[in-house]
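Please go through this protein, sequence plus structure tokens, and consider how the sequence yields the tokens. Keep your notes short.
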Amino acid sequence: MPAADRTQKSLEITRNLARYLPYQRAIRIAAYMSFAEEVSTETAIDMAVAAEKTVYLPVINNARWRTSPLLFETYVPGETPLRTNRYSIPEPVCRIGTARQAREMDLILVPLVGFNNRCDRIGMGAGYYDRSLAKPGYRSTRLVGLAFACQQAEFEPAAHDIPMHAIITEEGIITRKP
């Protein structure tokens, strides 16, 4: 996808996210730093900060006790120090006692490679989100995939795949049917 199209479609996705009622109600939102091919999350993060929501970014949990593969650390654009993890993804420097579990988030924006019309997602393959969100007590957190409409495909999810509550594209909001 050409960069100009990606930028325009990412803005439309952010506008649709702003219309999503669970986003409007959320106070603690986890986002992610996007790669070049993904939906840009920069505008969504800026929108959340402007709305006085607390934004968190995922941090790979390298501790031996590993309560969860991912933890979430607060993020303020331009202020929070970032480091590059082993996958070359910028993440906040984790401070003792400040990292949060997924169940403490109101809404998590989840990266994806593909999705289907049932709001199942295909991730990058390492399973960090699926393993982190499979724990009891995480079900109250709203899980939202951000994707371009062209990423929709038909597939059957694996048994370990955690479904999203919604997928938001430039064309609108797809919600999971019970």
